[in-house]
Each structure stands twice: as C-alpha cells, then as structure tokens.
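User: Could you go from structure to sequence for me? I need the amino acid at each position, not a summary. Structure tokens:
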C-alpha cells in the first residue's frame, strides 16, 4: 500500500472526529502531516495545486496517480488522514454559470465575459460547462482509484455573494446594494439554489465510496460538512451583512449538519457576533492574514468563539504556537476539545517532540 494509512487508523480517525463534532472530545483535533520516503515510483506528471492547470488533454486517471504519489510522500500524524479536495479555485460556481476561469500556478480567478447590470443578470448553471465536466470526471476517478482509502473533499464552490460579485465585479455590487437592493437579494437566492445543486451533483460522484465529508479545510465529518464564506462582506458593515449576506448563510447552515464559517481577515470581525447568533453554525475558522501576528495575538477572538459554544479552527503560525494557544485557553478552563488545528508544514524533530508531549498531556497516547 503506497499510502501509509491503515483501515484501523481510519476507524480511529472516524471515531475521534465524530466525538469532536458532538462536543465530547477532551482535546483538540490536530491534522498534522510530514514528509516520508514513498514506496512507489513517481507519477508521470507532477502534482499541481489547481486542477485546471492540467488542461483537458491529461486524463483523470493520470491526475489521480499524481495525487496518489503526493499522498505516498506524506506521513499523517495525530489526527491527520489522507485526503484531496477538488481544487478548481475559490468560487468555481461562477465558472459553472458562465464566468471565464483563468488559472496559473498560484491562484484561480473568475471574470465576467461581458458587462452586465444586476437587473439583467440571472444566475444559470450549465451542466455541460467544461470545468464542471472535468471536476466530475476527476471526482469519479478519485473515488474509483482509492475506494474509501482517501477522503475526496468537496470543491470550493464559493460564497453566494462572492459568486455574484464575480459577475458584477465587487465595485458594482457595492453600488447595487444601495441602488438595486432587491435585485441583489434575488441574485443571492438564485445563487444559493445553484450552490446546493452543485454540492449535491458533485457529492453523487464520490458518495458511494467516500469515507465521509470534507472540503478545502480537512475536518472529517460523517455527515455533510462545509466551510461557508463571504469574502465580499469584508467591504460592508454589519447592517448590510445582516440584510444581504446572513440570511443566505443561515439557510445553508440549516441544511448542513456541520457548518463552519471562513472568517477571513480583520475586515470581517465586525460580523462575528452576528455569525455567532446563527444557532445552526457549528464553528468558525479565523484567518488573521499575513502580517497580522501569530495565534497568541488573537486570544480574544478565540474566546468569543468558544464562549458562544462554537467549534474553532486556529490558523497561522507554527504548530508549536498553536499548541501553546490551546494550553493557554485550557488554563482558563475553556473547552479546548472544540478546537481544530491544521499544520501541513514538514514538521521537524522539535515539532514532533512537542506534538507527542502535547498528546500525552491531553491523554491521547
């Protein structure tokens, strides 16, 4: 077996994550990976961050083999597990509905093909779209390749507001919030319906032999889970957030047994209290952003999230910085059993020792 992860470890991961979601864990979940020497030959093509970079001339099975080689080069520590997500860029629903997709090795962007007003725009999904067809073909190839040995995570479909902004542009959408508020609300709900259509269609390709649910943040869930978002809300205040963004987010939370929100940057912090008021929202991922300090500098944000009874993902900084934050919050008698930390860097010997000591302190080994 080229991927170093046994059925027994999958069963342990499934049980631990299920307890975590239920609020029954006494320690945080730690998705940590490191490099290892693979026991298989390299793939014919190199693994790429964004799948559109492969183009349409490379068959899905060849791409699956490239991913398999990357996973064979990976050691999964603590609560880490082998997974891949269908990365076609954040907000790929825009491409499925007609936006132009442009990709390079660093990112994917979506551009309107023509200037259109909010009144003229009607969101429509094209099942024959080249990118949607490639995504589904990859999903099937991944599911067939690993048959449950690897988690195939959902594509980053996008936030409804971000998809609408891809067609109108962010600047025009800001103007339309004032000039055409009813049209923006209509477009949000049209996008909401299409979002769920795509979620279900992609899930059909992988459900029969997928271990569970995941997405671009690899939190394992036995029931449907997703990392919801609205990067657009960085540019608006709380009143507009509650009017245009929150109702659609809350509706998705009511349909997702395990819904998280991607709180991306200090511009979104004014919306945190409103988000925490959504009963069905299970957790919040806080992204402080580059140059905004390490995890220890955001303790107040972590406290607000945990004190609201939500789960929390800590991001940024080193593995040891994240572990130190957990110890600090535990010393304050907060429920650190609802925290998730992901560290995909190649951990060194000192990190491994710190991780082992941390797990022993929390009774995991």
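Assistant: Here is the amino acid at each position, in order:
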């Amino acid at each position: 077996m080229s991927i170093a992860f046994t059925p027994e470890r999958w069963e342990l991961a499934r049980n631990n994550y299920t307890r975590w979601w239920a609020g029954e864990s006494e320690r945080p979940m730690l998705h940590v990976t490191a490099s290892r020497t693979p026991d298989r030959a390299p793939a014919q093509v190199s693994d790429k961050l964004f799948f559109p970079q492969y183009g349409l001339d490379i068959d899905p099975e060849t791409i699956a083999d490239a991913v398999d080689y990357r996973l064979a080069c990976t050691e999964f520590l603590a609560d880490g597990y082998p997974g891949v997500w269908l990365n076609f860029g954040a907000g790929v629903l825009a491409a499925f509905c007609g936006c132009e997709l442009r990709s390079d090795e660093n990112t994917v962007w979506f551009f309107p093909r023509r200037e259109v007003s909010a009144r003229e725009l009607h969101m429509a999904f094209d099942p024959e779209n080249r990118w949607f067809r490639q995504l589904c073909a990859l999903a099937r190839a991944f599911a067939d390749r690993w048959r449950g040995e690897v988690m195939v995570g959902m594509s980053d479909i996008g936030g409804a507001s971000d998809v609408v902004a891809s067609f109108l542009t962010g600047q025009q959408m800001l103007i339309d919030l004032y000039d055409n508020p009813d049209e923006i609300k209509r477009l949000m709900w049209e996008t909401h319906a299409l979002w769920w259509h795509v979620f279900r269609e992609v899930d059909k390709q992988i459900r029969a032999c997928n271990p569970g649910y995941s997405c671009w943040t690899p939190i394992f869930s036995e029931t449907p889970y997703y990392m919801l978002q609205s990067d657009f809300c960085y540019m608006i205040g709380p009143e507009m957030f509650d009017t245009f963004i929150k109702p659609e987010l809350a509706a998705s939370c009511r349909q997702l047994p395990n819904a998280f929100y991607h709180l991306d940057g200090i511009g979104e912090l004014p919306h945190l209290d409103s988000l925490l008021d959504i009963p069905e929202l299970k957790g919040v991922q806080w992204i402080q952003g580059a140059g905004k300090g390490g995890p220890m500098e955001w303790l107040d944000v972590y406290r607000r999230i945990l004190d609201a009874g939500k789960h929390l993902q800590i991001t940024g900084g080193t593995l040891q910085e994240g572990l130190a934050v957990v110890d600090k919050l535990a010393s304050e008698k907060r429920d650190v059993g609802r925290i998730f930390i992901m560290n995909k860097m190649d951990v060194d010997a000192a990190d491994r020792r710190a991780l082992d000591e941390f797990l022993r302190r929390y009774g995991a080994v």
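One structural detail worth keeping in mind: Residues 15-36+75-81+218-365 form one domain.
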